[in-house]
């Protein structure tokens, strides 16, 4: 089926293509009656603007960009990004905007994408995720002047507005819960150490443990995958003084940690308690169901997209603190056993 064009509308209306362009773009040069008639014909024919051509002419591309610098295989198994993207789409589709997603292998490649999108007018703005410590992408986007919203703490967002939640408060709640149960040996299996939110959570965990008098606490870096979590968990639980509680930086790592504990013959939560960050169906499908930090991730994404659209429209946009994540207690946490478990059985 041939897509209707401005020329088709012009023939049906008996006017020039220039008049059609004026009418559809809200420009002066045609009478109001002619404008209404042209728009009615455009609707009848099912015409819609060619966004690629509009972008090349300097008009809006009706698209926003998202670049994710992580292995593509992680995106297929980690619920967080899919939920976040669903939130983006909810807000964008309501305004007839599309989401342009690109997965890259390095920050250098990501910066190249921003330069290309800016030069080609492929997107009207971008959403920046996985904010780094001293993030080199921030000054690049500031220099380009491309409207942008940062998913992350404003302390690393430069002059751009950030949509963020208080991860530190959530970590304090987790530590208080575990200490209240009687745990004195707690380990945190972190995400990528170069990410700003990892550092913020590490600082909050360390401060909360110190404040609660927990002297035996550990921070061990992983990379959000089940494989890295399994390796780290096995080493921790096989150590001479294994932790009695483990806090993971995402749900995938927590589920993998649960599997390792069970493989080693340990009972959850009697021998070891487990907590996941970012509640998801994964946390509720395993046995025991995982205690987890919960937040409305689709709403988080929608709030970011709404603010980006406002920035694209020329409105002033400031930082927005979203709802603080909260702890949902399930069957994977309990008081530590007064009797230490036997050494893990060999696999």
TrEMBL record:
PANTHER family: ALANINE RACEMASE, LACI-RELATED TRANSCRIPTIONAL REPRESSOR. SMART domains: HTH_LACI. It holds the Pfam family LacI. PROSITE patterns: HTH_LACI_1, HTH_LACI_2. Signal peptide: none annotated. Keywords: DNA-binding, Transcription, Transcription regulation. This is LacI family transcriptional regulator. Residues 4-58 form the HTH lacI-type domain. GO terms for molecular function: DNA-binding transcription factor activity; transcription cis-regulatory region binding. It comes from Virgisporangium aliadipatigenens. The lineage of its organism: Bacteria, Bacillati, Actinomycetota, Actinomycetes, Micromonosporales. InterPro entries: HTH_LacI (IPR000843), LacI/GalR-like_sensor (IPR046335), Lambda_DNA-bd_dom_sf (IPR010982), Peripla_BP_I (IPR028082).
């Amino acid at each position: 089926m041939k897509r209707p064009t401005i020329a088709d509308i012009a023939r049906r209306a008996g006017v020039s293509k220039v008049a059609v362009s004026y009418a559809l773009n809200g420009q002066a040069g045609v009478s109001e009656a002619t404008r209404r008639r042209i728009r009615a014909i455009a609707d009848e024919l099912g015409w819609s603007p060619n966004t690629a051509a509009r972008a090349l002419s300097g008009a809006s591309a009706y698209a926003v960009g998202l670049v994710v610098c992580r292995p593509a295989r992680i995106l297929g198994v980690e619920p967080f990004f899919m939920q976040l993207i669903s939130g983006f789409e909810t807000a964008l589709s309501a305004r007839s905007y599309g989401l342009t997603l690109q997965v890259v292998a390095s920050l250098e490649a990501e910066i190249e994408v921003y330069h290309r999108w800016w030069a080609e007018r492929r997107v009207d703005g971008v959403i920046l995720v996985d904010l780094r410590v001293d993030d080199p992408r921030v000054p690049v986007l500031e220099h380009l002047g491309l409207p942008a919203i940062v998913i992350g703490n404003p302390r690393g967002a430069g002059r751009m507005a950030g949509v963020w939640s208080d991860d530190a408060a959530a970590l304090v709640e987790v530590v208080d819960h575990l200490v209240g149960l009687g745990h004195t040996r707690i380990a945190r299996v972190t995400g990528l150490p170069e990410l700003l939110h990892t550092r913020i959570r590490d600082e909050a965990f360390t401060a909360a443990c110190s404040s609660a008098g927990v002297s035996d606490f550990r921070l061990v870096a992983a990379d959000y995958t089940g494989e890295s979590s399994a390796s780290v968990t096995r080493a921790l639980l096989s150590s001479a003084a294994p932790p009695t509680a483990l806090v993971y930086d995402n749900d995938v790592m927590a589920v993998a940690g649960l599997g390792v504990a069970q493989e080693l013959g340990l009972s959850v939560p009697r021998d070891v308690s487990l907590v996941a960050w970012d509640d998801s169906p994964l946390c509720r499908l395993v046995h025991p169901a995982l205690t987890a930090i919960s937040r409305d991730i689709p709403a988080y994404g929608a709030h970011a997209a709404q603010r980006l659209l406002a920035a694209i429209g020329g409105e002033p946009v400031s930082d927005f603190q979203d709802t603080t994540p909260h702890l949902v207690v399930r069957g994977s946490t309990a008081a530590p056993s007064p009797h230490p478990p036997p050494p893990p059985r060999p696999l």
